[in-house]
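User: Please predict the structure of the protein below. I'd like the answer in structure-token form so I can feed it into my own downstream comparison script.

Assistant: Understood. Taking the following sequence of 299 residues as input:
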Amino acid sequence: MLPYLDETQIRALLTWDDLIPAMERTLAEFSAGRVIQPVRTVLPIEESQRYFGLMPAITNEVMGLKAVTFYPVNVGTNVPTHQGMILLFRPDTGEPLAVMDGTLITEMRTAAVSAAVTNRLAPSEAHVLALLGSGVQAKAHLEALRHVRKFTEVRVWSRNSEHAQRFAHKHGITATSAEAAVRGADVIVTATGAQDPILCGAWLKPGAHVNAVGSCRANCRELDDDAMANTVVVDSREAALREAGDIIMSNAKIYAEVGEIFAGKKPAPLSEITVFKSVGIAAEDLAAAKLVLDRLREK
């Protein structure tokens, strides 16, 4: 029988210590051209409210597809805005390997990629973290980034101040304004569904690193033009130029794919303000799912 893994099973098998280096390897392979992957297909069901996406990829180790729903209309309900299923196949024979819930994998692989990038681009002495957003990705990034840097101060801001206060209380951090959160921060995460900028480049200190993981639509953005005028890296050039409003609307110049930096083909711009614009790609999902399947087989 084809195995199905739900979120509870995946949570017991997937760890940050395994996932962060796996994302680095996967993105290096992707940027080296060793992954077959089109830009995701997104079908709008109801503009700005409901979307259905299909994300296939083929690597040397696994072949598969993530089918994902993005429903901003679910905000404020008990139903997540992002849900999905992942199907894995053997690339040599085409045989199905497993089906698994994609919600937790999407959550964790996004933060794990940011952690891998932060580990390369943020100052080694970084100790102040700012989270703009207080949802699922803020929580995942707080966990993942603590695996690559030792933060002595964490600040959070949200478009919903009550959410920010609850998040701050739960995690023992400080809720404040967006500007106060960002000024002086070494690492910043933007994880919102904003349509217009919520982070100003004028707030960023020299050498700061930004992980911009929200607002992955061509007509939405989280960072203003000043922020995007800094050194910008992406997971996929092709996908970013089609999907990332932060890049499209600011005409930002892309310095590199992070996989090129991971592979040593482009130097890490350590002394500059850096912005990692993440849109998320299928190869990340499949690598995370394959990791889960491998851990299951080892039990």
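That's the full token string. The mean pLDDT is 96.
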